[in-house]
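Can't paste images in this forum, so I'm doing it all in text. The chain is below; anyone willing to post the predicted structure tokens underneath?
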Amino acid sequence: MNIVRYLDPQGPRWGWLNGERVVPLESGPIDAGLDLNGLFARARRQRDEGIAGDFGQPLAGLSLLAPIEPTSTVYCVGINYKAHASEAGRDLPPYPSLFLRRHGSLVGAGQPLHAPTVSEQLDFEGELALVIGSGGRNIAIADATAHVGAYTCLNDGSVRDFQRHSVTAGKNFEASGACGPWLVSADDIANPQDLQLRTRVNGIEMQSANTGQLIYPIATLISYISQFAHLRPGDVISTGTPEGVGAARKPPLWLKAGDRVAIEISGIGTLENQVLAIESGNGD
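Text version of the structure:
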């Protein structure tokens, strides 16, 4: 079961995929966090009752949004693959290394990534992300994966020169990253620690790794974050990127206007975006 967040004339809304069509769902109040489990339950009920039929809109004609709510916290993990630590010249972290991304830094599938006007060093980072379905605090590792509601793809787009003097700045340029194309129910992912991740730029493979190579696996990340933060339904944890990023190449490979970035994860789908040049004074 896959659900998407998209824009219609009344504003953002959620829907579920019925073949190549999207059937709308109501998310309800989000002041206590996104009711992700409730959305999946309603989608399954509609599907099982066979009430969808030809109802809904063609997926191809929709403007997809990042499948997270503005109230959600996005926790990102740095240096979580050994080979990426090596290419970055970093020691293996003794604990998970974390930073936050704000909602405006992420766009949905098919939406343009904004090339900053103040830097030429926009980089790609393909990652597996999870979305919390059931919140909690001080979650035990043994119980952690039961708190996952869904999985998705994330491009942790980074402006490297800004990142060197401020991780917060380098990771939070407007529309520099992406998330999507949809959320896949955790029930449909048999083993999230055995998914193949590939990142392609203009059709050329740049990153290829298996999520089994994570230094800190999913359960450990959830448990660690829950020690200092109450994880809420709808919160996102992006698990880190493997080797092959543009900054580590010789010469470095920076994204430029017109480039297409595609992040594919087995069992989930492909998140694809094109880089757009933003005129000075409009955007970044």
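The mean pLDDT is 93. The longest strand covers residues 177-185.
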